[in-house]
Design brief:
mainly alpha, 76% helix
Length: 181
């Protein structure tokens, strides 16, 4: 195998040889990480492009490529979870806002009581975060400061609490159709 230490520039033929040898291993990595076929091409292209830019500093191009694809797979799922949690966050807020236009005050009071009951079932840290974030309307930075969290970690903790609240909502009979309407 050609390494960057033995030649300052890798030929197209050498590069294609690395890709050909790595192809079955790359397919296995993508399958293990359950990357959808359409997104797998994007993950591979990002890794190939990174290799092209880094080739002069890489000792073992095939091993580097395999490791990079593994990391890109992990980043792919981390980003997907973040997008899902963000959509759950906004869906819950929109749903509660729409229910805020309920026809009677009693319906609104019932909804608030139901949500308070569900939030009360959550661990204390989730209760504190959700109350400050959504009932009091504080920004994530303010919630982190008030509760002693690192500002960089508050969104992760908030997302976990939203997942826990969503589970409670489903268990209580708030089905996904309610959240989508």
């Amino acid at each position: 195998m050609m390494s960057s230490t033995s030649s300052p520039m890798m030929s197209d033929q050498d590069f294609e040889g690395i890709l050909d040898r790595a192809k079955p291993k790359l397919k296995r990595i993508l399958a293990q990480h359950q990357i959808p076929a359409g997104d797998a091409e994007d993950v591979l292209q990002q890794a190939y492009l990174a290799l092209v830019y880094q080739i002069d500093t890489v000792r073992d191009a095939e091993a580097w490529l395999l490791g990079t694809v593994r990391n890109k797979c992990l980043v792919y799922w981390r980003d997907r979870r973040r997008k899902i949690y963000d959509s759950v966050d906004s869906t819950i807020l929109e749903w509660v806002a729409e229910k805020g236009t309920l026809s009677t005050d009693q319906e609104r009071v019932d909804l608030i009581n139901d949500l308070n009951h569900l939030v009360a079932r959550l661990p204390e840290r989730c209760r504190d975060i959700l109350v400050q974030r959504y009932r009091l309307g504080l920004e994530p930075q303010e919630v982190a400061e008030n509760l002693g969290y690192q500002p960089s970690s508050i969104s992760k903790v908030t997302n976990r609490c939203l997942v826990a609240l969503t589970r409670q909502m489903v268990l209580a009979g708030f089905c996904s159709a309610d959240l989508e309407s």
